[in-house]
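Lab notebook, bench 4. Still working through the backlog of constructs that have no structural model yet. Next entry is a single chain of 175 residues. Request: give me the structure tokens for it.
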Amino acid sequence: MTTDRPRYETKDDVNAEDAVAAVAGPILNCTFKKLSEIHYGVDFAMRQGRLFFGYAEVKRRRIKHHDFTTYVVSMAKFTWGLALADRAAVPFVLLVQYDDALVCYDATAIAAAGLVTVEMGGRSDRGDPKDIEPMAHMPVDSGRVLKEGNPDRDDAARDTSIKAMRSVLPAEDEA
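Model written out:
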């Protein structure tokens, strides 16, 4: 997956992804192998020893997992992960560390069940007009809570994140 967009991912983001993988691995009985985003477009391969059995994307959301009724991710990321998984006949999962829980969304099963809707959205805090794009929405309850709590909870960052997310949602009269 190649892109002409700036790379916003920081070293802290990569460290957070690794931390989520370290927690999720034992719960899901697997290990995670970091993949090249340029070549694969997703964060990790899931494996047991040499057996590869899925792709995973890791996200950090500074909100509680029930602050909104849907989990939202870029439609480009969602469809790219699904296409990779389909070609290899394995699942694509989204691991999301919220302020109150680590949640696993089996994107392959959620899409197959017809639970995904698509709306325009994204973020506006970076001033990048390409951040507004088609977004995949899936019911927040379609995910499996892997672990409750989060040691790095920061209420100020959470409140800022909620305001940023609400700023890109359409007004009720536009919906």
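Notes after review: Strands lie at 31-34, 44-48, 51-60, 70-74, 92-97, 101-106, 117-122, 132-139, 144-148. Confidence is low (pLDDT under 50) at residues 154-158, 171-175. Flag for follow-up if needed.
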